[in-house]
Design goal:
CATH superfamily: Nucleoside Triphosphate Pyrophosphohydrolase
Largest sheet: 8 strands, mixed
Number of domains: 1
CATH topology: Nucleoside Triphosphate Pyrophosphohydrolase
Number of helices: 5
CATH architecture: Alpha-Beta Complex
Helix content: 10-25%
Strand content: 25-35%
Structural class: alpha+beta
CATH class: Alpha Beta
Order of helices and strands: HHEEEEHEEEEHEEH
Distance between the termini: 12 Å
Length: 203
């Protein structure tokens, strides 16, 4: 993928305001009693050896944590000190991997995404300098790695499988699973964010 930073920003312009039928269908499948917590993640784009990559984290294993051990983006729940969800994403990235907010060039946002763990997640796309001396919080992050956009954009590298959340209380929901890369498997909400980003960048 040979897009410039300005071209990426143009592709993402107003992306989060467009209609998202998938979001509505998923909302309709949530239990009527479900309450959603606002959250945000940073999707860090970087250039390495002339090619675009996305940076991912692997969450540290913790008992009773449903996101434990998963491949994800740095992020978390909003708190009262955040002015908006972009600030939430930048704050969480600083706390989790030592990425200074001033070093992130925010390029846009994607559609909010609802998760089965009751979060409404706002994906914020930002470019970061590379190489960069990241400092992971080992209580939260066990590994940091990158995947080339060209590999992520290849439809042969992922598949959609039916999955039933909420212990079978609703009909199966399509979940994206990528093939293994660098010993890790990207799937679920983070994979869906990646696929939406790829779809927008190759238009």
């Amino acid at each position: 993928m040979t897009l410039t930073t300005n071209e990426i920003r143009k592709h993402l312009r107003n992306a989060h305001t467009a209609k998202n039928p998938l979001l509505q269908r998923f909302a309709e499948r949530l239990p009527a009693t479900a309450s959603l917590q606002a959250a945000a993640v940073l999707m860090p784009l970087l250039q390495d050896a002339g090619a675009w990559h996305l940076l991912f984290i692997k969450r540290t294993q913790h008992p009773h944590d449903r996101h434990s051990g998963q491949v994800a983006f740095p992020g978390g729940g909003a708190d009262g000190g955040d002015n908006d969800l972009t600030q939430t994403a930048l704050r969480e990235a600083q706390e989790e991997i030592g990425l200074a907010p001033s070093d992130v060039k925010v390029l846009g946002r994607l559609h909010d995404l609802l998760t089965v763990t009751r979060y409404r997640v706002t994906p914020v796309v930002g470019q970061i300098p590379w190489p960069y001396a990241l400092e992971p919080d080992l209580n939260e992050v066990s590994r940091i790695f990158t995947i080339p956009l060209a590999w992520l954009a290849d439809p042969g590298n992922y598949e959609v499988r039916p999955w039933t959340p909420f212990q079978g209380k609703v009909e199966p929901y399509p979940i994206i699973f990528y093939k293994e890369y660098a010993g890790e498997i990207l799937w679920g909400a983070s994979a869906r964010m990646v696929v939406e980003l790829m779809e927008r960048l190759i238009r």
